[in-house]
């Protein structure tokens, strides 16, 4: 008996399980979660090497499976392959997101240093810049997932609003509104925490 023939019953069982999940069968989803959570966690951890981020990704992947179970097609590959690919992509996206945020902080510091190349920061000013980095980080994280997504694509990847709309498959008007609300929320959050002195930080983002 060929490997393909041996795998057929398993593939049928996987498809049946996903069909039940797609039909919003809570018991089927609990079965899938119990069966594949360890696989999702180990796959994500190999990329992230960070327990909290890995737990976040595992929950995101399970949510994706619950919402998009109907997109799984057994003829294109096994459920394990589909889950591992989804998990790996999410984990890589998380790594890239962190890297983009680090690049943003670097741009901010370069802007400040470039405007006063011969000026040495006092201890208090250096502390202020350090605080500003943490404030920006927490402010971005506190955005809604939708706002954070378009802000990162616009400012960290340099995509136009039209390109973002195509990337996330959303109307252009929706993308514009999310960016506007995200920037407004960042401005309020940063200025509140930096006593109204956060405009430079946002200017460095918006360029």
Rounded to the nearest angstrom, the radius of gyration is 22 Å
Let me know the average pLDDT: 76
Largest sheet, described in full?
none
* Number of contiguous helices: 9
The outline comes out as: elongated
Could you state the oligomeric state of the chains shown? single chain
Can you tell me the number of structural domains? 2
Helical fraction equals: over 70%
Topology:
Elements: H1 3-22, H2 26-48, H3 51-68, H4 79-115, H5 123-142, H6 145-156, H7 161-168, H8 172-193, H9 199-206
Helix pairs in contact: 1-2, 2-3, 2-4, 3-4, 4-9, 5-8, 6-8, 7-8
Characterization of this structure:
- It is built from nine helices and no strands.
- The chain has 207 residues and is mostly helical.
- It folds into two domains: 9-92, RNA polymerase sigma factor, region 2, helix turn helix motif (Rna Polymerase Sigma Factor, Chain: A), CATH 1.10.1740.10; 121-206, Winged helix-like DNA-binding domain superfamily/Winged helix DNA-binding domain (Arc Repressor Mutant, subunit A, Orthogonal Bundle), CATH 1.10.10.10.
- The termini are far apart.
- The model is unreliable at 1-6 and 115-128 (pLDDT under 50).
């Amino acid at each position: 008996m060929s490997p393909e023939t041996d795998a057929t019953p398993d593939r049928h069982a996987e498809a049946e399980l996903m069909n039940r999940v797609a039909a919003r069968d809570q018991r089927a989803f609990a079965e899938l979660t119990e069966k594949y959570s360890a696989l999702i966690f180990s796959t994500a951890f190999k990329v992230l090497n960070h327990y909290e981020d890995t737990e976040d990704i595992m929950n995101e992947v399970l949510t994706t499976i619950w919402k998009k179970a109907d997109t799984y097609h057994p003829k294109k590959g096994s459920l394990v392959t589909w889950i591992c690919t989804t998990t790996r992509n999410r984990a890589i996206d998380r790594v890239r997101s962190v890297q983009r945020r680090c690049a943003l902080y670097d741009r901010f510091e370069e802007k400040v240093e470039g405007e006063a190349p011969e000026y040495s920061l006092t201890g208090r000013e250096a502390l202020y810049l350090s605080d500003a980095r943490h404030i920006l980080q927490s402010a971005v994280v506190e955005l809604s997932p939708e706002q954070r997504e378009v802000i990162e694509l616009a400012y960290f990847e340099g995509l136009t609003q039209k390109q973002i709309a195509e990337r996330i498959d959303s109307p252009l008007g929706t993308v514009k509104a999310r960016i506007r609300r995200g920037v407004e929320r960042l401005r309020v959050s940063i200025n509140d925490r930096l006593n109204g002195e956060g405009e430079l930080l946002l200017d460095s983002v918006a360029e």
